[in-house]
Amino acid sequence: MPNRLIRPVVEDTTRDRILKAAILRFSSHSYEETGLRDIASDVGVDMAYVHRSFGSKEKLFREAVRAMLRPEVWLVGEASELHMTLAKDVLADKGANEIRPFDILARSFSSPEAARVFRELIDEGFVKPFASKCQLVSEPRASMIAALLAGVSILRDVIGTSALQKSGKDHELAILISQVVEFLMNDDKECQTTATLPISRERQ
What we know:
By secondary structure, the chain is an all-alpha fold. The chain folds into 2 domains: 10-68, Homeodomain-like (Arc Repressor Mutant, subunit A, Orthogonal Bundle), CATH 1.10.10.60; 69-187. It has 10 helices and no strands. The protein starts with 13 loop residues before the first helix and ends in a 19-residue tail after the last helix. This is AcrR family transcriptional regulator. Residues 35-54 bind DNA.
């Protein structure tokens, strides 16, 4: 995915600074561990100001995740080339101080509140825009593509699965991922296969 370096800049408003501090907090601490008081302390403002700016911890969490899931950044280019673009992006090196959406998910996936926010924003920020950009792609197919990319990203960047780490096989992995995404992007007729799923037998 594109670089997302969370750094303060001179032009930042206090609200911007709070949002960036929240992204940093939620990427290194769980939803339950993070409080508005912690974020306020990181920015140097009182907790009441954070509450006035965002309303609640859940709303601030939602804004932090939304800021990371920006389809206008990575759903770019021709739809016909999107499978290759996404494959390259998901395997791109993670730079120092770079935060990716699944860094936040990995910290808070066990929280029902955080899971609901992620579920809604993945639908809003990936599934629907993807299906809209690629007219042959239904929302269930876009959801499957999201699941594939999320799985690769979590195993590679969060868990550190050795087979998915940077190596001489990155090109091979990119081709494999792009082929699976391309398969899911094809219409129903093109995706038909003669393979059948085994039917489980009832236990005696």
